[in-house]
Amino acid sequence: MTVLPTTAGPLPDRMTAVTLVSYLGSVPPVDEVAAAERVAALSKRSIKRESKLAALEMAVRMMDLTTLEGQDTPGKVRQLAAKAIRPDPVDPSVPSVAAVCVYPNLVPIAREALQGSGVRVASVATYFPSGQAPTDLKVEEARRVVEMGADEVDMVIDRGAFLSGRYLEVYDEIRAVREACQGAHLKVILETGELGTLDAVRRASMLAMAAGADFIKTSTGKVTPAATLPVTLVMLEAIRDFHALTGRKVGMKPAGGIRTAKEAIRYLVVLYETLGGEWMTPDLFRFGASSLLNDVLMQIRWVKTGRYQSADYFTLP
């Protein structure tokens, strides 16, 4: 059995197979039609010019710039770190992003490049993106990336175990990785594109939060579909329900497929309407979308100057 963090609500201190099944059994089903209608209605909201600039700058502060390719090099990571610190070289008023996310062996490079900037270092772990490895190896990888300097760890759940109904196995693995993080923030990736239904997304969200996730995250970016507004709404509602149950605030990170400033603002509207202003902070909401940054920078330039700039005027993320 695994000990949970102290909570303000009726969540049991110890989860067994029986108590976990009871907990997940209390999770209400998702009305998929209502979820789609809700995000469609929220997507029609318009934002005035002054509010739009604030929303765009908030989106920048909430971004995790990511490079997770086999061809990644120290030079590429240093370039990404420079972009993270100063997204627009000609406009110092544009804020830095939240974090830079890399593979484990590049954590020391990112740490050095970001030193003193306030931008956090994140690393994927637990045999990203498949998660297909024994638990002890996953736990060791999480421990090592924190020792190398990662402030945040992005783990993937074992989707095979979850879809097979082996919920306690998934729960215990998240708890073990949580303990290995030694105080670093843990983002738990559900890979929602493989879960099949919004009911499964809500159930996986509640399981991950009960196991100690600081953030729940939609996707690795390696599977289609990745982040969608209905999936994000369901995960935000799960966060709301978990907060009501326990008093603990958990963050949310939609990742993959968010490419335009217009889309990002839609996500922020859904966030605000579901969880309120308290969650409108990089400490509780992130975008995992490196390709998004330049479009947001172009929109910021337009709001400030009334002129569009080509993407060629901005460095590649």
Quick structural overview:
By secondary structure, the chain is an alpha/beta fold.
Descriptive terms for the model:
317 residues; alpha/beta; TIM Barrel; seven-stranded parallel β-sheet; two-stranded antiparallel ribbon; 12 helices
Structure write-up:
The chain is α/β, with parallel strands linked by helices. The chain has one domain: TIM Barrel. 46% of the residues lie in helices and 10% in strands. The protein contains twelve helices and nine strands. Helix 3 packs across helix 11, helix 3 packs antiparallel against helix 12 and helix 10 runs parallel beside helix 11. The radius of gyration is 19 Å and the shape is globular. The N terminus is likely disordered.
Radius of gyration: 19 Å
- Strand order in space, largest sheet: 3-4-5-6-7-8-9
Tally of distinct domains: 1
Question: N-to-C SSE series?
Answer: EEHHHEHEHEHEHHEHEHEHH
